[in-house]
Amino acid sequence: MCRLHLALIVAVVVQLTWNRVGAGSIWPKIQFTAHNPVDKSLDNGQTIVLQSVVINDGQGYDPNTGIFTCPFSGLYMFTLQHCVDREKYSHVGIVKDNTMLVAGVAYGTTWWPCSSMQAFVSLSKGEKVWSKANWESYLHHDAARWTSLSGVLLRPDELVTLQST
């Protein structure tokens, strides 16, 4: 492969996975959304594993474990929407390395209501965020009501400077 082709491929990859900030500076596109819980009947402390990934730029979310591992330090926002079965409760929250960031409770009356929450948190590379049940919980998920978790890097701790060759 010639140098020109290699340079073009690198430029395309950078454009698809990094945001340009200014002359010579970039930051990574880190964002994910996943929905569709593997298990809808949860025990206290159980991680909510969401198997259907809509987007996973940065590959931080693992749909096998339900855990986001921070690939780049910075300020993140996470949102969790939980839908609950009729006549059941859902006690869930967003967790950072076993510390609860935000929690909520929903009760399903004659419908399948959904409730959402969000958390802003500074993360260092390698720290983990996930959603979990804080009590026995019963989630609902269908075409109109999605139980989902999303996260996005709002501001990196450091910008990456492009080196000219």
Chart the SSEs and their pairings:
Layout: H1 3-17, E1 18-22, E2 25-28, E3 31-37, E4 41-42, E5 50-57, E6 61-62, E7 67-69, E8 74-83, E9 89-96, E10 99-107, E11 114-123, E12 128-133, E13 137-138, E14 148-156, E15 160-161
Antiparallel strand pairs: 1-2, 2-15, 3-5, 3-14, 4-13, 6-7, 7-12, 8-11, 8-14, 9-10, 9-12
Q: Would you write up a description of this structure?
A:
By secondary structure, the protein is mostly beta strands. The protein has one domain (29-157): Jelly Rolls (Sandwich), CATH 2.60.120. 9% of the residues lie in helices and 53% in strands. It has 1 helix and 15 strands. It has one helix at 3-17, and strands at residues 18-22, 25-28, 31-37, 41-42, 50-57, 61-62, 67-69, 74-83, 89-96, 99-107, 114-123, 128-133, 137-138, 148-156, 160-161. A 5-stranded antiparallel sheet has the order 5-3-14-8-11, with no helix packed on it. A 5-stranded antiparallel sheet has the order 6-7-12-9-10, with no helix packed on it. A 3-stranded antiparallel sheet has the order 1-2-15. It is elongated, with a radius of gyration of 19 Å. The two termini are 18 Å apart.
Mean pLDDT value: 86
What ranges have pLDDT less than 50 throughout 5 or more consecutive residues? Answer: 1-16
Radius of gyration: 19 Å
Order of adjacent strands in the largest pleated sheet = 5-3-14-8-11
Main sheet makeup? 5 strands, antiparallel
Output the number of helix runs.
1
Structural class: mainly beta
Question: How many strand elements?
Answer: 15
Fraction of residues in β-strands: over 45%
The CATH class turns out to be: Mainly Beta
> Could you state the order of secondary-structure elements as H and E?
HEEEEEEEEEEEEEEE
Euclidean distance between termini CA atoms: 18 Å
Tally of separate domains: 1
- The CATH architecture can be named as Sandwich
Query: Per CATH, what is the topology?
Result: Jelly Rolls
Helix content: under 10%
Question: How does the overall form come out from the CA principal axes?
Answer: elongated
Keywords: Secreted, Signal
Protein name: C1q domain-containing protein
Signal peptide: 1-23
Domain C1q: 25-160
